[in-house]
Amino acid sequence: MNFLPISTVFLLAFAALSASTAFADVDAAHPDPSSAEDREAVADKPENERWYKNIVPIPMIITEPAIGEGLGLGIGYFHPVPGADRYTANQLESPTAVRDARVASKPPPVVTGVFGGVTNNGTWAAGIGHMNNWKDDRIRYLGVVAFANVVTNFYVLGRPYEFELEGVVLVQDVKFRLGQSNWFLGVGLSYLKADITFRVPPPDPDNIDVSGLLTGEFTDIGLTARVMRETRDDSLMPSTGSLIDMTLSSNGDYVGGNYDYTTLKLKFLSFHPLGERFVLGLRGEYALQGGSAPFFAVPWISLRGIPALRYQGDQVAVVEAELRYRVSPNWAAVAFVGKGWADSDLLGFETKEDAGAYGIGGRYRLLKDQGVWVGVDLAKGPEDTVFYVQVGHPW
């Protein structure tokens, strides 16, 4: 239910890169400084060898139906974090082991990445990002700058109208932990400067002409305030814990943008071990928007099996459940089902729509020590069946 789809495309590669690093700081390249053996091993290794091992290439297969199929590549440098090793991924082999150990949430990795990708409908994106945390995970930071050309559809009364959007996006986000708690307060900035063009469709019976909705150059700038509570044991493949995320974004000409609108977003994720092999994941999201937002910034139903921007509304809600079964230490199977609702008067057309999707998938632990899981999902939506390649958890 993201409210800035263009930034979603820009961040696609970096998000996959970031997700795959949840256990990066337990790699052999990041030894425990409290261990005498590790200190000696580090001393014996040439500096350039250790630096080289911190570079991780991540090939990506893009299967988002809104922008077509394609390929991408992310290259990340994982900065060594002294003392980051609290436990190793292979010490906790089952969901209940994680729960019973009462392991504190691992801080996000420190990573700098570059990425690029292209799809078969003409969409492309390239950029650079950095994720960091300081003071024992009391401060978290994420920054991305990217360039892209996005070709996708905007729907009016169920009919697709293709448009092309080309420009640059800048995203800055910083969060501060409240004392020793799991609560964070954060602020953010989003900046989008782009040019948009509608590829005007042939006349239709309703004589709906959306070509004049928005053309030419524009700027969209937003400020965000956030309250977040994070207790998940791992952002890559959670087995226990929850995430509560509340954001209020204000876009307006008072910060130099061309549009005035406000968006409230609520997000809740929770994960529950069921015995030794099952994990139940629950997701709920809600978005409420007011003001004069451009069509591409209107929230939409975000579910596997449904293209981005397909069902948009001033109010959007999504619920989803996923059951994961640990077949073996390195293999897992998932089944998921979800439904969304969108209520809108966009362009003066009052619409109330709902859409559901369901599917199955598989997961493989590609790198055991790093805890990197990859997999595939097959999702059935209202109009089509979609194949997804996943790195980490899709939520």
Structural descriptors:
395 residues; mainly beta; Porin; 4 helices; globular
Verbal overview:
The chain is mainly beta. The protein has a single domain, classed as Porin (Beta Barrel). It is built from four helices and 16 strands. It has a 16-stranded antiparallel beta sheet. The protein is globular, with a radius of gyration of 21 Å. Mean pLDDT is 81; it is low at 1-43, 87-92 and 98-103.
Write the element-wise H/E pattern from the N-terminal end onward: HHHEEHEEEEEEEEEEEEEE
Kindly estimate the percentage of residues that lie in beta strands according to DSSP.
Answer: over 45%
Major beta-sheet overview: 16 strands, antiparallel
Shape: globular
Mean of residue pLDDT values? 81
Q: What would the CATH topology be?
A: Porin
The N- to C-terminal Cα distance equals: 11 Å
Q: Which CATH class is shown?
A: Mainly Beta
Rounded radius of gyration (Å): 21 Å
In short:
The protein has helices spanning 5-19, 36-44, 47-53, 95-101, and strands spanning 55-62, 70-78, 111-119, 124-134, 139-156, 159-177, 183-198, 216-230, 241-251, 260-274, 278-292, 315-328, 331-344, 351-367, 372-380, 385-391. The chain is mainly β.
